[in-house]
Amino acid sequence: MPVMTGCEQQQDAGLFVQAPAQTPGKDSAEANRLTKGTIVAVGDSLTAGLGVDENLAYPSLIEKRLAADGLFFKVVNAGISGETSSGTLSRINWVISSLKPDMVILVTGANDGLRGIDAKLLKQNLDQIITILKEKKIRVVLGGMKMLPNLGPDYVKEFERVYPEMADKHHIPLIPFFLKGVAGEKTLNQPDGIHPTAEGYTVIVDHIYP
Q1: Catalytic residue check, 85
Q2: Catalytic entry in 85, 112, 195, 207
Q3: Which of 53, 97, 154, 192 is catalytic?
Q4: Do the domain assignments include residue 52?
Q5: What is the C-alpha separation between 184 and 200, in angstroms, rounded?
Q6: Is 192 an active-site residue?
Q7: Whole-prediction pTM value?
Q8: Is 45 considered catalytic here?
Q9: Domain of 70?
Q10: CB neighbours (10 Å) of residue 160?
Q11: What are the tens digits of pLDDT across the range 39-69?
């Protein structure tokens, strides 16, 4: 199985065994390995799986892929449809205390972009969320988002650079674009053109856990 260090920004199974709880370099790679525990998928409707059976949303598919590789994680779907990054920040302490994650897959911010919320607020929220998680020694994998061009090139550029900046700052793995291979593909999205179908989620998981 491929192994990835916390500062690399690419997509492979190593995201789920090697996302460091501490800054890279403080411990050996082997000491940082996580091979069992609880992963909590935190985010909006893209995580919740709006419009598809929960068993077909990406958290359940990830759990099955990990189990097939002998990595026995419980993957909890903690997605809430319509949530912005501010909403995620407001409940992250509840996620920690109630769900007790060893790792969090953080995919939030799409609704910020769709609503034209200032990208500076998105950056501030992600910074706080990741800081809170790392202070609790919880590993974090960050899912990046891209935005529709009709919001203007300046906004799109500022929005999209938030994710790699946060990954670099906090030395965490980044999924550069969570919807890679799915966004804009009519056959992989529901009629609203935003939410993936069951087949779309399979494509997403194929990219983040090939």
Answers
A1: no
A2: 195
A3: 192
A4: yes
A5: 11
A6: yes
A7: 0.87
A8: yes
A9: 34-208
A10: 19
A11: 999 999 999 999 999 999 999 999 999 999 9
